Amino acid sequence: MKTKCKVSLWGFIFLMSIFIILTTNINNVSADLTSSTDKAVLQDAPNGISIGDYLGQDTPTKPTADKNFPYTTNSAQIVDRNGSSSTSNGNIISLANGKSTYGALWSKDQTFDITKPQTISFWVYFGTGDASDEINGEGVAFVLQNDTRGMSALGAGLDGLGVFGADNSTVSGIPGSIIIPASYTSKSESYMAGTAVQNSVALEIDSKLNSFWASKNGVPIQLSNAGITSNSTLYSQNGFDTHPGGTPVISDIPGKLTYGSNGGGNGNIAITYPALSSTYYQKGSLTSASSAYGSYDKATIMIKSNSTDVDLTDDKDANNNPIYWHHLTVNWTPAPSGSNIATLKYAYNDISKDGLENPNAKEVSNQIDTSKLNVSSSNKVRWGFTGSNTTSSSVATKLVAFDSIPESPYADASASITDKTLNKTITDGATDKTVASGDDLSLDYDLNYIRGDEDWKSVISKIKIPDNLTVSPDENGNIATITYADGQSPTNIPASALQDSTIQYALERDLTNTNNVAKISISATANNDTSSDINVKQAPASFTGTNSIAMTSSPAFTILAKKDYSLNLSTSSSTDYNLFYNNPDTTFTSDLNLGYSDNAPSGLTSSDTIFKIEVGNHTYTAAEDIALQSGQSAKTTMDFMQIIEGSGDNFWDIFPKDSTQEVKVTAIDRTNDLVSNTLTYNVTVQPDKLLHLNVSDGLEFQNIHFGNKSTYLKRKSGFNLSVTSLREPWKLSVTTNGLYDSSNDINSNMELVYRNDDQSNYSSLSETPFTVATNNESYSTSTTDNISDKWESDTGLLLKQLGLSPAGQYTGTLTWTVSDAL
């Protein structure tokens, strides 16, 4: 009876195995994702760059360590947001689609240079977030590899994530049978290392706890039952994440080492070396493990570096909404000269799908032994992603979308808010994040092209305006400016780019190694008409190019409630100033009075007061030694010249000669976020010294007939001769070289003379300077002496006739010189 029972049981199990193999064996090929869940997830996916030019796959090649290796298909493919299989414009990769599937996509060439800084940022999707291991597992891995199989390289599925070696074991006996208990014989560590992706290092992002201790883990997985082509005796131990206690000590793996995973979160991220034998630790029979496992001769556990528990399946964002797409930014820092130890630093959940930066993102820095990659002289390896699914028919597709990859330019974006009224800048790390209602703000977004072989092309900005801010067009209908590093004139963003509180605008120029910065500045006004402070949340901004995507968010800040009291600024000095240009004795100071209005609350104080000084398009700030207290007035003296020159500007460049300008002064109480009224000074700049000659261009004398023997000929035309001076005594002189006829011959019968008044003698004018007038006064205001106004008909300039001259017209030149009398 017992013998017949045993035979019947084996026969039953054998028939069931055949049936399951025939009905569930999977032949993975590229196909569209068709399930409604997949399509909904894809259509809700973050933006991603087209990846088909960079990643691909070849038919998997079996590892040399096992020509009967059971993992021989590759389900990875590139899809678009509609789920259609696409290798041209697809921006999402599907690594595992369906139960027990696994796959890998690799860079089409060795493009990851380990001797240069590299960045890759991407989104990963594991499932719907209900913390079910079977739905969300197994996980994905970012891998650097130098496997000779190239794009055909592939590791084991299931807990192997498509990159690790196979934890294969064979069974004898009957699993679950009390009569003939099953025992399992595992492969060696070297076998597992040999069946992994060779010469590799992996950033494992594991969404399922594969542990012997986990009751929900179930029994070891019979590969044929799971739909993986193999004989019925082949099993996966399914226990890579087991943590038996203790700490491994292995000299050839850097970092903090652990056995498996602590299982403290719904997921795990760690550094592993898939092709290293010491990565696979085998422990003797685990008698304390679940009895469903039977009796292992050796149980295989993976050793991980810097294993970190994370929430990959049921995380929540700041608004308590479930997070399905998780963002990671991976930065590679090359090993220093003479060392093999590089640094791989990742930030997890650093950005939400809406584009909000997470200041509390988990960041982990890892040491990477690059010697394990066995690179050639080119120092380049392939990069790629692998992934696998659980055996559940409800398992979610494993998806990855990319912001930037090693081949694309690495770009970064950051945001800040400048309060132009209170003269302060708000960033995520600022301690003071308050503004007052009515303050003029500038929302500033800095786009930085950091490195790359390609330009950052066709960048489209999409900026959400924070709540309680009003964006108003300027007089030309523009709401923002874009300033580039190349020094060209800023470009304007028109008001039409603002729709539904979001600005969407395409940059006119690509960012390059030379034109590597673009700054977008948006003018806005803070609004709070309530009696309570308003806490304004972050607002996302994305900058999407064809080959790289950068995201940031405006910092959170607070708009203070309106105050019913004010800060008052006045002066006892004149607000009209006359300055003498470039005069070393010039001073420009003013007395200032500052205080709170009478209705200010008692006990109100401030020790952080600054003054904003505006001259034309120049703005200066000064922190005067002034303390404020309600009920009292504070006084200070402001030296405008010292403030301007202390900022590095030349005072007389700001106040040029012969100019009239307004100087506006406003006080800012930064303790209580109050801004005073504005005082306006009218400043006129006069020349420090002035000496100017005004003289007519020509002078005519009276006509005479031949034979006229008059000695002195009078002026026929009017003549203007004056000197204007300011703090400059002067002397005026004149010279002439005589009169000439039309043949340019000198007329010796006539000479020019000068007579100061009717009591003076006539003085002949020649090439020797003759002093016409002097003034030794140094006038404090500009003064004009009109010399020709004093001339009579027989004084001033006259023409003396020495003899008879032939008929004709005679001309000559007078040269007037005014000079410093000293």
UniProtKB/TrEMBL annotation:
Transmembrane segments annotated in the record for this chain: 7-26
Record has Transmembrane as a keyword: yes
**Domain of life of the organism encoding this protein:** Bacteria
Gene3D superfamilies referenced in this protein's UniProt entry, alphabetically: 2.60.120.200
* Keywords for this protein: Membrane, Transmembrane, Transmembrane helix
Name of protein:
Cell surface protein
> What organism does this protein naturally occur in?
Companilactobacillus baiquanensis
